[in-house]
Design brief:
278 residues, alpha/beta, binds zinc ion
């Protein structure tokens, strides 16, 4: 039994088949990310979660405004977010955070304001957050010119210390792609590190090193489906069933067995989200 701690289910035309594939691969619980195409559709993941079958694969949901949509974090969008976040099937707020990679994204002040507003909503409802953080390290020159010298990780960790740590609530670093120091600081702040298909890529030596050495009780696995398919499926449509491939890769890195890794990450997920315990 495995849990996919981060997937996007909104756009699958064959969702019943995708859920059946997950179940057949032993992926029995999914966290569907409720960012939609922006705030207007952020409720979609929650609708899917409410329709998920009582047997087979269980779907839980988040709601959030992605940093690339930060300019849409209007008072009415935040009000919708606050309302949806109270739903018992919504277990986290996200994915929220900072993205200094894409040139088209809202500017830094808009991203940070939307992030802080959502931290406050999550704190009020006492639910964990799931974080998206992308730096400009590998961005095109125009994007580097827009965002640098600011660093998304530095800004993110500073905002979490100011606006999240005082609430004593945990969270997830989704698709963890930082370095060892950023991992250590995330762990200090009470976060779990969730590893996605990119951990299997040849250039991911640093992510692999973090996945190898992170404390067993703070790791999760995810797909970020339909994006980021693990090797050997890289470049294809991803789906939650493929959590099993990433989990096997992480188990090998850590010198443990896939069943032990599955049991550990499942226990971690249920500790983080007690209401999901079967
Ligand atoms: Zn995502």
């Amino acid at each position: 039994m495995l849990i996919d701690s981060h997937c996007h289910l909104d756009d699958y035309k064959d969702l019943p088949q995708v859920l059946a594939n997950a179940s057949a691969a032993g992926v029995t619980t999914l966290l569907a990310i409720g960012i939609g195409d922006g705030p207007d559709t952020m409720h979609r993941a929650l609708e899917i979660a409410h329709q998920s079958p009582t047997s087979g694969t269980q779907v839980w949901a988040t709601v959030g405004i992605h940093p690339q949509e930060a300019h849409q974090a209007t008072p009415s969008a935040l009000e919708k977010l606050a309302r949806l976040s109270a739903d018992p099937r919504c277990i986290a707020i996200g994915e929220i955070g900072l993205d200094y990679y894409h040139l088209d994204n809202p500017d830094i002040p808009a991203q940070q304001a939307a992030f802080i507003a959502q931290l406050e909503i999550a704190a009020a409802v006492r639910k964990p957050i799931t974080i998206h953080c992308r730096t400009s390290e590998l961005a095109i020159p125009a994007a580097k010119a827009k965002y640098e010298p600011a660093d998304a990780w530095d800004d993110l960790l500073r905002l979490l210390v100011q606006h999240w740590q005082p609430h004593g609530l945990p969270g997830i670093m989704h698709c963890f792609s930082g370095n060892e120091q950023q991992a250590a600081r995330s762990l200090e702040l009470g976060f779990y590190l969730s590893f996605a298909g990119n951990v299997t890529y040849p250039k991911s030596a640093t992510i692999q090193q973090v996945a190898r050495t992170a404390p067993a009780d703070r790791i999760l696995v995810e797909t970020d489906a339909p994006f980021l398919a693990p090797i050997p499926l890289r470049g294809q449509r991803n789906e939650p069933a493929h959590t099993a491939i990433t989990a096997q890769f992480v188990a090998n890195l850590r010198g443990t067995t896939p069943p032990a890794l599955a049991a550990q990450t499942t226990e971690n997920f249920h500790r983080l989200f007690p209401t999901t315990t079967p």
